Amino acid sequence: MPSPPLLDVRDLHVRFPTPTGPVHAVAGVSFTVLPGETVAVVGESGSGKSVSSLAVLGLLGSGSIAAGSVLLRGEELVGADPERLRRLRGAEIAMIFQNPMSSLDPLFTIGDQVVEALRVHRTLSRREARERAVDLLREVGLPDPQRRMRSYPHELSGGQQQRVMVAIALACEPALIIADEPTTALDVTVEAQILDLLRTMQRERATALLFITHDMGVVAEMADRVVVMYAGRVVEHGPVTEMLRAPRNPYTRALIEAIPTPATPRDRPMSAIAGSVPAPADAPPGCRFHPRCPAVHDRCSAEEPPLFELGPTRASRCWLHEREVHGVG
Ligand SMILES: Nc1ncnc2c1ncn2[C@@H]1O[C@H](COP(=O)(O)OP(=O)(O)OP(=O)(O)O)[C@@H](O)[C@H]1O
Ligand SMILES: [Mg+2]
User: Fold this and answer.
1) 59-62 contacts at long range (C-beta below 8 A, 24 or more positions apart)
2) Which one of 87, 141, 252, 323 has the lowest number of neighbouring Cβ atoms within 10 Å?
C-alpha cells in the first residue's frame, strides 16, 4: 500500500483583490507530497509557485483561497483557525525563503533566533535550548558555532545566513519543509553547498521537502517528483527521471531545453523560451501556453486541454495527448 500523502492540495484557487478587479493567481492547482519525499514545483516567474505554497501555510496576506482544499495528514487547513495554523507553522511545516536577510531579525543574534525557534513549540530550558542550538548550527555546517551564536545576521555571508535558516527550519523537526527558491540569491558554489545540505538533512531526518524553483537543473538534482506550473495551472507532473528523460508537455520540454550545459555561454539569458508568462488577467483563451508553444494547432487557442492522465503517476495538460488517452482516430 502506498503511504497516504502528508500534504494533499486539491483544486486550489487563489484570488487577490486589486484596483482593477480580482486577480485569479492560482486556478485549480492539485498536487501531493508523500512523507519523506522531495517534490519540486517548477515554472517561470509569475506561474504561481509562491502563491500556491503561501496558501498552504495560510500566509496569503491580502489574497484569499477562493476554493479548494489543503489537507495536512488529512486535516483541512483551508478555513482553519489562524491560531491552529500558527502552531502548525514551524512545528509541522517550516519555510525557507529566497532571501535569508528578510527572514532573520537584524536586531537579534543568531543564537537568540535559533533558541527562539526551538522554544516556541517545545518546553526546553534556556540552557537546553542553547546547547541544542549550537548542535543544530554545527549540523548545518556553520563554522565555529559556539562563537556564531553571538553573531548578528549581517556578520554572516549569504550562504551562512541560509544555513542558519535551515537550522531554524529544522529546529522543531517538522514533517515538511517548504523551500521557495532558497538558493536563487547565492552564487553557484554556495548554491551547490546549500542544496547538498538540504538533501543531506532531508535524507537523514526523512523530512518531506516541497522545493520551489524556476531551474530545471536544480530539479534534476533535488526532486523525486516534479510539478510543472504555468500561468496558475499545473501543466505536467510525474517522477523526475521519467519527466527529464521523456517530458510530455511542450512547456516542460522547453524548460528542459533551457537547462544550461557546460557548453552554454554564461552570458546567455536564463530563459530560452521566447516571450513570458501572461499575468492572470491577460491569460489567453484556450491553452494558456499556446501563444508560445512550438506544437500549437487550431484547437489550442479555442479550448483549454484538461490534465490528461498518461499512466498511474503521470499527467500532462496538452491536446497532443487526446488521441492516445481516448484512443481517438
Ligand atoms: N499580493 C498580490 N497581489 C496581486 N497579485 C499577486 C500578488 N501576489 C502574487 N500575485 C500574482 O500572482 C501570480 C503568481 O505569482 P507568484 O509569486 O506565485 O509567482 P512565482 O511562480 O512564485 O514567480 P517567481 O518565480 O517570480 O517567484 C503573478 O501573476 C503575480 O503577479
Ligand atoms: Mg516565487
Assistant:
1) 59/89, 60/14, 60/16, 62/16, 62/17
2) 323
Q: How far apart are CA 190 and CA 209, in angstroms?
A: 20
Q: Is the pLDDT of residue 329 over 50?
A: no
- Summarize pLDDT for 152-195 with one digit per residue, the tens: 999 999 999 999 999 999 998 999 999 999 998 888 999 999 99
Predicted pLDDT of residue 328: 46
State the pLDDT confidence band at 127, using cuts at 50, 70 and 90. Answer: very high
What sign does the CA torsion over 122, 126, 132, 134 have? positive
Judged by DSSP in three states, 190 sits in helix
Beta carbons of 92 and 122 less than 8 angstroms apart: no
Q: Which atom of ligand 1 is nearest to the CA of 61?
A: 1
**47 close to ligand 1 (CB < 6 Angstrom):** yes
CA–CA distance, 252 with 316 (Å, rounded to integer): 9
CA of 282 to the centre of ligand 1 (A): 14
Q: How far apart are CA 17 and CA 24, in angstroms?
A: 9
9-61 confidence digits (pLDDT tens): 999 999 999 998 899 999 999 999 999 999 999 999 999 999 999 999 988 88
59 CB within 6 A, ligand 1: no
What percentage of the chain's residues is helix, strand, coil (to nearest 5)? Answer: 40, 20, 40
278 lines ligand 1 (CB under 6 A): no
